[in-house]
Amino acid sequence: MLRLNEHTKRNIIAYYSGWLSKPQIIGLEINDEDKNGFMMAVHKLDCKAGLDLILHTPGGDIASTQTIVNYLREMFENNIRAVVPQIAMSAGTIIACSCKQILMGKQSNLGPIDPHVRGVPAYGVIREFKQAVKEVKKDPASMAI
Q1: Does residue 83 share a domain with residue 93?
Q2: Residues 67 and 129 in one domain
Q3: Using one digit for the tens of pLDDT, what is the confidence trace for 6-19?
Q4: Which of 88, 97, 84, 90 is CA-nearest to residue 52?
Q5: Are 82 and 88 in contact (CB under 8 A)?
Q6: What pTM was computed for the model?
Q7: What stretch of H or E contains 62?
Q8: Which domain holds residue 122?
Q9: CA 135 to CA 142: how far, in whole Å?
C-alpha cells in the first residue's frame, strides 16, 4: 500500500474481508462496528488528498453501509475511488457505486444488490410465499403442508 500511496499521493484504506477463505466465520460482513473502524482509520489523515478504498467484501447490513458511505463522503468531499481487486458483493457494490470512480481488474466483479434474509434472496422468499397463497386458495386443505 505504501508504493500505491507514493504513486497516487492519495490516502488508502483496505476494507478486505476473509469471507472467501473463512466462510464459516460469522461477522465478516459489513456491520455497525465497521463505521468505528473507518473513523479510526481516517483519524489524522489529510482528507483533502482523497481516498482510494480497496474493497473485498461479501456485503452486509444496508443501514451500516449507508452510515459508512455518508461518513466517508463527508470526510473526503466525495473524492473517493473504489479499487476492487477481486469481489465487492451486495453492500460492497453499493459502497463502490457511491464512489467517484471504480477501478477493477479483468478478474474483478461487483455483485448483485438484492436484499437477502439470512442468506436467502428476499425476492425468492416473496415469490414462493405468493405461490403458496395461490395454492392454498385453490386447495385450502393444502395449508397444513
Answers
A1: yes
A2: no
A3: 888 999 999 988 77
A4: 84
A5: yes
A6: 0.80
A7: helix 62-76
A8: 115-145
A9: 7
How many angstroms separate the Cα of 46 from the Cα of each of 49, 75, 77, 107?
A: 6, 10, 12, 32
Q: Hey, how many other C-beta atoms are within 10 angstroms of the C-beta on 23?
A: 10
Q: How many domains does the chain have?
A: 2
Contacts of 56 (CB under 8 A, 6+ apart): 15, 16, 17, 84, 85, 86, 87, 88, 92
CATH of the domain at 8: 3.90.226.10
Which helix (H) or strand (E) element contains residue 124? helix 122-138
Nearest residue to 14 via CA among 53, 67, 65: 53
Q: What is the pLDDT of residues 19-47, one digit of tens each?
A: 788 777 777 889 999 999 999 999 999 99
- CA–CA dist 142, 145 (Å, integer): 5
To which residue does cell 467484501 refer? 57
Q: Report, in this order, helix, strand and coil percent for the chain, each rounded to 5.
A: 45, 20, 35
Instruction: Based on the fold, state whether residues 55 and 77 are members of the same structural domain.
Output: yes
**Which amino acid is present at 116?**
H
